Amino acid sequence: MPTRAELARQIVAVSHALHHRGWVANHDGNVSARLDGGRFLVTPTAISKADASEGGLAVTDASGKAVEGEGKPPSEFALHLGAYAERDDVLAVVHAHPPYATALACAGKSIDVFLPEAIVSLGDAVPLAPFAIPSGEAGAAPIRALIGRYDALLLCRHGVITVGPTLELAMLRMELVEHLACILTLALPHGGVQPLPADVIAKLLAKRRAASGLLGAAAALAGGGAAPIEEASTPSPTAWTPAGPPPARDAWSGGETEAACSVVYGAPGVASAASTPSPASSAAPAAPADRNESLTDAVQAEIARLLQS
Ligand SMILES: [Zn+2]
């Protein structure tokens, strides 16, 4: 297990990366790690993640109460505690508001994972946790209900939370969720992403389950039948620092994604439709085909409306 000083360094590095990538704004987002003795290290409340420092981190007990130093934990740390309480293998939690993934979460969508490698890393879905004010036990409840089976969750009308056995893996999962959300958004004008065949998903989930020692308890619970086992590659935690410098905000799409987003999420008709609570926001996520269809239908309807106007 990394030393406390090393964990503090990694929390600060992740915090700075979240800010530089535009995945948090104002005082948004929080990063934490589990320490020995039932304590936790977490970014303090009311700071920009650009200003996170090793000496300014909060140290809490198992209930989330500050026990050392002057740093005060954020109210959203309750969400982290919910994940830690559910899974002993979770040693790090990252919460942020990356724009593409958060756009989906605010539209009441979840992600059916559509890239083969991503299924090994995340499973076959990034489900949508029902909305809750993000503090206290009520805020943690939607996390606790799902985190036993998933390593990354979209938080309805809020953002994203990821967990891992290391800060590195939790951050990489955040990166992957945002990457999937970006690709999903880019594919919308082309008719949306195509789902992988069910038998392929089953084989990939078997690989994920076989790699559970590296990927955590959720991977061990992944479904799927027998398949050739290939060892998952995980970068060495000691060699890892967040990638940088970050890309320009618009580098992914050359401006096309932002234009697509304004059509998909910024138009009044779609916005009002998205504000209607979906079944997925109050219960288990809907069937994959339903979610993909509803997203694609919303885009097509909006494009048709714009062409008629
Ligand atoms: Zn948040």
Overview of this structure, please?
By secondary structure, this protein is α+β, with helices and mostly antiparallel strands. The protein has a domain at 75-225 and 253-308: L-fuculose-1-phosphate Aldolase. It contains 13 helices and 10 strands. The strands form 2 sheets. The chain has an 8-stranded mixed sheet with strand order 4-3-2-1-5-10-9-8, sandwiched between helices. A two-stranded antiparallel sheet has the order 6-7. Strand 9 (152-155) and strand 10 (159-164) form a beta hairpin. Helix 2 packs across helix 5 (136-146). The longest helix has 21 residues, at 167-187. The chain is globular and about 50 Å long. The model is unreliable at 224-240 and 243-296 (pLDDT under 50). The site of zinc ion (ZN) has 7 residues, from loops.
Briefly summarize what is shown:
The protein has helices at 4-20, 77-86, 99-106, 116-122, 136-146, 167-187, 198-210, 212-215, 217-220, 256-264, 268-274, 279-282, 288-308, and strands at 30-34, 40-42, 58-60, 66-68, 92-96, 111-112, 125-126, 128-129, 152-155, 159-164. It contains 13 helices and ten strands.
